[in-house]
Specification:
The complex is a heterodimer of chains A (128) and B (294). Chain A has 128 residues and is mainly α. Chain A has one domain. In chain A, 90% of the residues lie in helices and 0% in strands. In chain A, helix 1 runs antiparallel to helix 2 and helix 1 runs parallel beside helix 3. The longest helix of chain A has 55 residues. Chain A is rod-shaped. The N and C termini of chain A lie far apart (115 Å). About 5% of the residues of chain B have low confidence. Chain B has 2 domains: 102 residues; 141 residues, 60s Ribosomal Protein L30, Chain: A, CATH 3.30.1330.60. In chain B, helix 2 runs antiparallel to helix 3, helix 2 packs parallel to helix 4 and helix 3 runs antiparallel to helix 4. In chain B, strand 3, helix 6 and strand 4 form a beta-alpha-beta unit. Chain B is rod-shaped. Chain B has 294 residues and is of the alpha+beta class. Classes of the chains: A mainly alpha (128), B alpha+beta (294). Chains A and B meet through helix 3 of A and helix 4 of B.
């Protein structure tokens, strides 16, 4: 009976330890991922300052939650901080692509005007 | 905590356009709706957006689990917000991909437009070189025509030169070829033509009928012996007789003119017998009509 109780206690303890360890690993992974994204974001100087500032606060909060042992909350907060950094990067990229699109549209219009001009020259040359 | 959840949900619901249905939407439904809406706008090739969306649906699963376990969990507001951010991020990435697709289309359009421009430029080049060829051909034709006329004129000149004799002098000046016929060829003091003159004029008519570009101005001249009126009348009559003879030989009247100049255009001294002899003459001034036009 004692042996059975001991075995059950051990299993529960291992399960609890494993659960705790898994939860902490997930938090650490989220924070690590967020940190990697922050480093990536720091290479871009044109990011939305509100978003990067908010992301920093969220990552600090995530670390604080982790310290308090609130792993699930810490993980969700770290994820949110990372999402805000990704949003900042995506917005900057979107603006850059918009600028490229605009320039190309202008170049295309200029090409079209050139085509019309050359066509009019050809029409004049072949009118006789 | 429950109050905080309700406030967060209320704020999310208020942001949706269909506010009337808001109370019935759970955080899970709201999250799913946001992700589904974002999904609907994605271009087919928006890989990163689709990947973000997959993460978003992962967050939705987590939310469903947490919500099912405890609909009052502190975690729910953060998970709902994360879900919204996944949707926002996916939508933004989708928009960026759509722009990239548009850029790719425009590059293709530019390439096509530039190919068209090159083709038009080639056509312009061909049209211009064709014109140059036409112009060159026209120049060559003009030159050939000019050479032909010149050759014809030289030929005529050679034939007229062959008429050169004691009684017919052939010269050339700015007006054209001048055949000066001595008055020996006319009856003395009369306008009628002697046989020798008729023979020479028939030859001239033969040449003129071949070389149609020549017109002839027949000018009668006298010395200063006798009255001016007589000389003028005599010179006019002689010129007209020559013209009429040429007409009889088949030369078109339109190519001929006749005028009497009397003693007004001497070519030698009237005080000597030889000079007076030279001044008594009929000049046939032969001009090239084609050169007059030019």
């Amino acid at each position: 009976m004692k042996a059975n109780f001991f075995a059950c206690s051990m299993i529960l303890a291992i399960a609890a330890l494993t659960g705790c360890s898994g939860s902490q690993t997930a938090v650490n992974r989220s924070l690590g991922q967020a940190e990697a994204t922050r480093i990536l974001a720091s290479e871009n100087t044109n990011l939305d300052a509100n978003l990067t500032s908010s992301a920093k606060s969220k990552l600090d909060a995530a670390r604080a939650l982790k310290e308090d042992g609130k792993d699930e909350e810490a993980q969700a907060m770290a994820e949110q901080g990372e999402l805000e950094l990704r949003l900042a990067i995506a917005k900057s990229e979107n603006q850059s692509v918009k600028n490229e699109d605009k320039k190309l549209e202008e170049a295309l219009n200029a090409d079209e005007e050139r085509k019309v001009l050359y066509q009019s020259i050809l029409d004049k040359e072949t009118k006789k | 905590m429950k109050t905080m959840n309700i406030l967060t949900l209320s704020a999310l619901v208020a942001s949706m356009s269909f506010a009337a249905d808001a109370p019935s939407i759970s955080p899970v439904d709201h999250c799913k709706l946001s992700l589904d809406n974002a999904k609907a706008t994605l271009p087919a090739n928006a890989i990163s957006a689709k990947s973000t969306l997959a993460e978003g649906y992962g967050a939705l699963n987590q939310l469903e689990t947490v919500y099912a376990d405890d609909d009052d969990s502190d975690l729910i507001p953060t998970l709902v917000e994360n879900c919204s951010k996944y949707a926002e991020l996916a939508k933004l990435q989708g928009e960026t991909q759509a722009l990239r697709n548009h850029i790719a289309e425009n590059w293709e359009k530019r390439a096509a437009t530039n190919r068209t421009i090159e083709a038009i430029q080639e056509q312009i080049g061909e049209a211009r070189s064709g014109k140059v060829s036409d112009l060159e051909a026209e120049k060559q034709a003009i030159k050939a025509q000019k050479d032909k006329l010149e050759a014809s004129k030289n030929e005529a000149m050679d034939k007229l030169n062959a008429l050169q004799s004691q009684m017919i002098q052939v010269t050339k000046d700015a007006r054209g070829i001048i055949l000066s016929m001595s008055d020996i060829l006319f009856e003395i003091g009369q306008a009628s033509l002697k046989t020798d003159l008729k023979t020479s004029l028939a030859k001239i008519a033969g040449i003129l009928s071949v070389y149609q570009q020549f017109d002839v101005s027949i000018e009668g001249n006298t010395d200063n012996v006798g009255s001016e009126e007589f000389n003028l009348k005599l010179s006019q009559q002689r010129a007209e007789n020559v013209m009429n003879f040429l007409i009889e030989q088949g030369i078109a009247e339109s190519r001929l003119t006749a005028k009497g100049l009397g003693m007004t255009m001497p070519i030698a001294d009237n005080s000597t017998k030889e000079g007076r002899q030279k001044n008594r003459r009929v000049d046939l001034v032969i001009t090239d009509r084609t050169q007059k036009v030019k």
